[in-house]
Protein backbone atom coordinates (compact mmCIF):
# COMPACT_ATOMS: atom_id res chain seq x y z
CA UNK A 1 0.00 0.00 0.00
CA UNK A 2 1.05 3.63 -0.23
CA UNK A 3 2.79 4.46 3.03
CA UNK A 4 1.78 7.93 4.28
CA UNK A 5 5.15 8.48 6.00
CA UNK A 6 7.60 6.81 3.60
CA UNK A 7 5.70 8.24 0.62
CA UNK A 8 6.05 5.06 -1.43
CA UNK A 9 4.37 1.70 -1.87
CA UNK A 10 5.59 -0.91 0.57
CA UNK A 11 4.50 -3.92 2.61
CA UNK A 12 2.70 -3.10 5.84
CA UNK A 13 1.91 -5.50 8.68
CA UNK A 14 -1.61 -5.54 10.14
CA UNK A 15 -0.72 -3.88 13.46
CA UNK A 16 1.22 -1.13 11.68
CA UNK A 17 -1.65 -0.67 9.22
CA UNK A 18 -4.14 -0.02 12.01
CA UNK A 19 -1.75 2.45 13.64
CA UNK A 20 -1.29 4.33 10.35
CA UNK A 21 -5.05 4.50 9.77
CA UNK A 22 -5.71 5.94 13.22
CA UNK A 23 -2.91 8.49 12.87
CA UNK A 24 -3.03 9.57 9.22
CA UNK A 25 -6.43 8.57 7.83
CA UNK A 26 -8.73 9.25 10.78
CA UNK A 27 -10.66 11.78 8.67
CA UNK A 28 -11.50 9.06 6.10
CA UNK A 29 -12.93 6.62 8.62
CA UNK A 30 -16.58 5.80 7.88
CA UNK A 31 -19.26 4.38 10.14
CA UNK A 32 -21.17 1.28 9.08
CA UNK A 33 -24.46 0.52 10.82
CA UNK A 34 -25.35 -3.16 11.17
CA UNK A 35 -28.04 -5.10 12.97
CA UNK A 36 -27.07 -7.68 15.56
CA UNK A 37 -28.76 -11.03 16.19
CA UNK A 38 -30.95 -9.53 18.93
CA UNK A 39 -32.29 -6.85 16.57
CA UNK A 40 -30.30 -3.93 17.94
CA UNK A 41 -28.05 -1.75 15.79
CA UNK A 42 -24.33 -1.18 16.23
CA UNK A 43 -21.91 1.22 14.54
CA UNK A 44 -18.52 0.02 13.30
CA UNK A 45 -15.66 2.33 12.35
CA UNK A 46 -14.21 1.24 9.00
CA UNK A 47 -11.53 2.28 6.56
CA UNK A 48 -11.45 0.90 3.01
CA UNK A 49 -8.70 1.04 0.40
CA UNK A 50 -7.24 -0.88 -2.54
CA UNK A 51 -3.87 -2.60 -2.31
CA UNK A 52 -2.17 -5.94 -3.02
CA UNK A 53 -1.06 -8.92 -1.00
CA UNK A 54 2.49 -10.19 -1.03
CA UNK A 55 3.26 -12.35 -4.10
CA UNK A 56 -0.18 -11.61 -5.54
CA UNK A 57 -0.72 -9.29 -8.49
CA UNK A 58 -4.50 -9.23 -8.20
CA UNK A 59 -5.77 -5.89 -6.86
CA UNK A 60 -7.77 -6.37 -3.70
CA UNK A 61 -10.07 -4.19 -1.64
CA UNK A 62 -9.31 -4.09 2.07
CA UNK A 63 -11.89 -3.22 4.71
CA UNK A 64 -10.44 -2.57 8.16
CA UNK A 65 -12.89 -2.65 11.06
CA UNK A 66 -11.56 -0.75 14.06
CA UNK A 67 -12.76 -2.09 17.39
CA UNK A 68 -14.46 -5.27 18.59
CA UNK A 69 -17.49 -6.97 17.04
CA UNK A 70 -19.05 -7.31 20.48
CA UNK A 71 -18.10 -7.45 24.16
CA UNK A 72 -17.01 -11.10 23.81
CA UNK A 73 -14.58 -10.33 20.98
CA UNK A 74 -10.92 -10.44 22.05
CA UNK A 75 -9.61 -8.64 18.93
CA UNK A 76 -9.32 -4.87 18.67
CA UNK A 77 -9.53 -4.85 14.87
CA UNK A 78 -10.53 -7.05 11.89
CA UNK A 79 -9.28 -6.91 8.32
CA UNK A 80 -11.47 -8.23 5.51
CA UNK A 81 -10.40 -8.56 1.88
CA UNK A 82 -12.30 -9.04 -1.37
CA UNK A 83 -11.46 -9.11 -5.06
CA UNK A 84 -14.67 -7.20 -5.83
CA UNK A 85 -13.25 -3.71 -5.94
CA UNK A 86 -16.63 -1.98 -6.23
CA UNK A 87 -18.02 -3.58 -3.06
CA UNK A 88 -18.93 -1.22 -0.25
CA UNK A 89 -17.73 -1.75 3.30
CA UNK A 90 -21.30 -2.58 4.32
CA UNK A 91 -21.56 -5.29 1.66
CA UNK A 92 -18.19 -6.82 2.57
CA UNK A 93 -18.98 -6.92 6.28
CA UNK A 94 -22.50 -8.26 5.70
CA UNK A 95 -21.19 -11.09 3.51
CA UNK A 96 -18.47 -11.86 6.05
CA UNK A 97 -21.00 -12.16 8.85
CA UNK A 98 -22.85 -14.81 6.82
CA UNK A 99 -19.83 -17.11 7.02
CA UNK A 100 -20.92 -18.95 10.16
CA UNK A 101 -24.26 -19.95 8.66
CA UNK A 102 -22.50 -21.13 5.49
CA UNK A 103 -19.92 -23.11 7.47
CA UNK A 104 -22.70 -24.62 9.59
CA UNK A 105 -24.56 -25.64 6.43
CA UNK A 106 -21.49 -27.35 4.98
CA UNK A 107 -20.85 -29.14 8.27
CA UNK A 108 -24.40 -30.52 8.20
CA UNK A 109 -23.98 -31.50 4.54
CA UNK A 110 -20.74 -33.34 5.31
CA UNK A 111 -21.70 -34.94 8.64
CA UNK A 112 -25.32 -35.85 7.91
CA UNK A 113 -25.61 -36.14 4.13
CA UNK A 114 -22.03 -37.28 3.31
CA UNK A 115 -21.52 -34.38 0.90
CA UNK A 116 -17.83 -35.21 0.42
CA UNK A 117 -18.20 -39.02 0.25
CA UNK A 118 -18.95 -39.31 -3.45
CA UNK A 119 -17.34 -42.26 -5.25
CA UNK A 120 -17.48 -40.96 -8.80
CA UNK A 121 -14.88 -39.01 -10.76
CA UNK A 122 -16.70 -37.31 -13.61
CA UNK A 123 -17.57 -33.70 -12.80
CA UNK A 124 -21.16 -34.08 -14.06
CA UNK A 125 -21.74 -37.06 -11.78
CA UNK A 126 -20.21 -35.23 -8.82
CA UNK A 127 -22.46 -32.28 -9.58
CA UNK A 128 -25.54 -34.53 -9.61
CA UNK A 129 -24.51 -36.06 -6.29
CA UNK A 130 -24.04 -32.62 -4.73
CA UNK A 131 -27.44 -31.52 -6.04
CA UNK A 132 -29.10 -34.55 -4.45
CA UNK A 133 -27.39 -33.75 -1.15
CA UNK A 134 -28.56 -30.14 -1.34
CA UNK A 135 -32.13 -31.22 -2.12
CA UNK A 136 -32.09 -33.57 0.87
CA UNK A 137 -30.63 -30.83 3.10
CA UNK A 138 -33.23 -28.31 1.89
CA UNK A 139 -36.10 -30.73 2.54
CA UNK A 140 -34.77 -31.53 6.02
CA UNK A 141 -34.31 -27.84 6.82
CA UNK A 142 -37.86 -27.11 5.61
CA UNK A 143 -39.25 -29.90 7.80
CA UNK A 144 -37.26 -28.61 10.78
CA UNK A 145 -38.35 -24.98 10.34
CA UNK A 146 -42.02 -25.91 10.05
CA UNK A 147 -41.88 -28.48 12.88
CA UNK A 148 -43.89 -31.01 10.88
CA UNK A 149 -42.44 -34.02 12.70
CA UNK A 150 -43.62 -32.67 16.07
CA UNK A 151 -47.20 -33.20 14.88
CA UNK A 152 -46.84 -36.94 14.34
CA UNK A 153 -43.94 -38.08 16.56
CA UNK A 154 -43.82 -38.45 20.34
CA UNK A 155 -40.07 -37.85 20.43
CA UNK A 156 -39.32 -34.53 18.77
CA UNK A 157 -36.05 -34.68 16.78
CA UNK A 158 -33.88 -31.59 17.12
CA UNK A 159 -30.65 -32.13 15.19
CA UNK A 160 -30.35 -32.54 11.45
CA UNK A 161 -29.21 -36.12 11.90
CA UNK A 162 -32.22 -36.97 14.11
CA UNK A 163 -34.59 -35.38 11.59
CA UNK A 164 -32.97 -37.31 8.75
CA UNK A 165 -33.30 -40.55 10.71
CA UNK A 166 -36.92 -39.74 11.56
CA UNK A 167 -37.81 -39.09 7.91
CA UNK A 168 -36.00 -42.26 6.92
CA UNK A 169 -37.89 -44.25 9.55
CA UNK A 170 -41.24 -42.82 8.43
CA UNK A 171 -40.43 -43.74 4.82
CA UNK A 172 -39.48 -47.26 5.90
CA UNK A 173 -42.60 -47.50 8.02
CA UNK A 174 -44.83 -46.27 5.19
CA UNK A 175 -43.24 -48.74 2.79
CA UNK A 176 -43.53 -51.63 5.24
CA UNK A 177 -47.08 -50.80 6.28
CA UNK A 178 -48.11 -50.55 2.67
CA UNK A 179 -47.18 -54.22 2.35
CA UNK A 180 -48.20 -55.59 5.74
CA UNK A 181 -51.03 -53.21 6.75
CA UNK A 182 -49.87 -53.68 10.34
CA UNK A 183 -50.71 -50.70 12.58
CA UNK A 184 -48.46 -51.94 15.41
CA UNK A 185 -45.36 -51.25 13.33
CA UNK A 186 -45.78 -47.57 14.21
CA UNK A 187 -44.51 -48.19 17.72
CA UNK A 188 -41.13 -49.22 16.39
CA UNK A 189 -40.55 -46.06 14.40
CA UNK A 190 -40.10 -43.04 16.65
CA UNK A 191 -43.32 -43.97 18.50
CA UNK A 192 -45.76 -42.37 16.11
CA UNK A 193 -48.62 -40.84 18.10
CA UNK A 194 -50.82 -39.63 15.24
CA UNK A 195 -53.96 -41.81 15.26
CA UNK A 196 -54.88 -40.57 11.79
CA UNK A 197 -51.51 -41.71 10.41
CA UNK A 198 -51.77 -45.07 12.17
CA UNK A 199 -55.30 -45.60 10.88
CA UNK A 200 -54.31 -44.57 7.37
CA UNK A 201 -51.33 -46.94 7.34
CA UNK A 202 -53.36 -49.84 8.74
CA UNK A 203 -56.32 -49.35 6.44
Notable characteristics:
203 residues, alpha+beta, four-stranded antiparallel β-sheet, 6 helices, elongated
Describe this structure in words.
By secondary structure, the chain is an alpha+beta fold. It has 6 helices and 4 strands. It has a 4-stranded antiparallel β-sheet, sandwiched between helices. A hairpin with an 8-residue loop joins strand 2 (41-51) and strand 3 (60-66). The chain is elongated, with a radius of gyration of 26 Å.
Structure described in brief:
The chain has 203 residues and is an alpha+beta fold. Helix content is 43%, strand content 15%.
Number of helices: 6
Q: Termini separation (Å)?
A: 75 Å
Radius of gyration from the CA trace? 26 Å
Oligomeric state of the chains in view:
single chain
What would you call the structural class? alpha+beta
Largest sheet: 4 strands, antiparallel
Summarize the amount of helix as a percent range.
Answer: 40-55%
Give the domain tally: 2
Query: Which residue ranges are poorly predicted, with pLDDT under 50 across at least 5 consecutive positions?
Result: none
Strand order of the largest sheet: 1-2-3-4
- pLDDT averaged over residues: 83
Strand content: 5-15%
Element-level helix/strand string: HEEEEHHHHH
Compute the number of strand runs: 4
Global geometry: elongated
Amino acid sequence: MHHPVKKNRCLVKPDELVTLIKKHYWNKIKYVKLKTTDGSEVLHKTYSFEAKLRDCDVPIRFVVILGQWNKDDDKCYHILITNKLNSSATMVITNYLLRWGIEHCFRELKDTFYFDHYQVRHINKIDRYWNLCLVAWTLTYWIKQNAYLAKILETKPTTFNEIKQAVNSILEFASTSALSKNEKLADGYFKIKSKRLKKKCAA
